[in-house]
Amino acid sequence: MTKPYLGDAKGTIEVLQKYPFRFQKKFGQNFLVDAHVLEKILEAAHITKEDFVLEIGPGIGTMTQYLCEAAREVAAVEIDSNLLPILAETLKDYENVSVIHQDIMKMDIAGLVQEKNQGRPVKVVANLPYYITTPILMGLFEKHVPMESATVMVQKEVAERMKARPGTKDYGALSLAVQYYAEVLFVANVPPNCFIPHPKVGSAVIRLITYEKPPVYVDNEEFFFAIIRASFNQRRKTLANSLKNSQILQLSRERVEEALKKMNLSPQIRGEALSLEEFAALSNLLL
């Protein structure tokens, strides 16, 4: 493919210096300036000329250029109006991209997918602001946006939590929520020096491949996730006590212990020891 010109610090700085742009903390802006990492993301996302790609947070258009070269069409959603004139310049040579100035959290993404891809599953690529990573991803999953996969840059710690297994320190409600909706594949670690400005923490690229249907059956998704959240609200307590203490669930400790007994689990077990399958079974027993 034609090599885009923004995949390094020099090209990024040259573009930024043309405009009165200031990095804004509230948007968590860190622009990727490492061509090797950009190519890894593109390779991991498996973008083809058949694909419609939704990019969240294009910044100055660095990754967008790569996506435009590889995909049939790209919709890039950017919240910061100060970046719009920059994107107009960096993407002017591409006819297969539309820049949408909106907050991804307030968008009708399913409507966009219907309009641009006739409702067929899209591929999402994003360098997500760290403070809002989880709400964005969970919003995509919970709204059941037709999505084949999401290849995203996240804080390394968040990536570890997403792929964590039962019994580990990183395992928690986020691990279970993401693993209910998607297979989690680790792509690469990305050190702070790959960005302008350097973030204070390490980053990682992960690929989430959405399940056609979840790997476990639950009678009521809302109740299932309420059980999970309550189980990790007080990690040091037993699962029975954590669920009893939840004002939302209104479960007695005896009822929880009875359900655990049916599952051949100790009444003293903690939430962090249960697998996704066990949480599904517990949720169905307690409903």
Task: Outline the fold blueprint.
Elements: H1 9-17, E1 31-32, H2 35-45, E2 52-56, H3 62-70, E3 73-78, H4 84-90, E4 97-101, H5 109-117, E5 122-127, H6 133-142, E6 147-155, H7 156-163, H8 173-181, E7 182-190, E8 195-196, E9 203-210, H9 221-233, H10 239-244, H11 253-262, H12 276-286
Parallel strand pairs: 2-3, 2-5, 3-4, 5-6
Antiparallel strand pairs: 1-8, 6-9, 7-9
Helix pairs in contact: 6-8, 9-12
What does this structure look like?
With 287 residues, this protein is of the alpha/beta class. It folds into 2 domains: 9-210, Vaccinia Virus protein VP39 (Rossmann fold, 3-Layer(aba) Sandwich); 221-286, Orthogonal Bundle (Helicase, Ruva Protein, domain 3). It has helices at 9-17, 35-45, 62-70, 84-90, 109-117, 133-142, 156-163, 173-181, 221-233, 239-244, 253-262, 276-286, and strands at 31-32, 52-56, 73-78, 97-101, 122-127, 147-155, 182-190, 195-196, 203-210. Helix 6 packs parallel to helix 8 (173-181) and helix 9 packs across helix 12.
Run of helices and strands = HEHEHEHEHEHEHHEEEHHHH
Poorly predicted residue ranges? none
Q: What is the count of distinct domains?
A: 2
CATH superfamily membership of the largest domain, which one?
Vaccinia Virus protein VP39
Biggest sheet record: 7 strands, mixed
Distance between the termini: 54 Å
Which structural class best describes the helix and strand composition? alpha/beta
How much β-strand is present in the residues?
A: 15-25%
Strand arrangement, largest sheet?
4-3-2-5-6-9-7
Helix content: 25-40%
Shape verdict:
elongated
In CATH, the architecture of the largest domain is 3-Layer(aba) Sandwich
CATH topological fold name of the largest domain:
Rossmann fold
Task: Please tally the helical runs, counting DSSP H or I stretches of 4 or more residues.
Answer: 12
Number of strands: 9
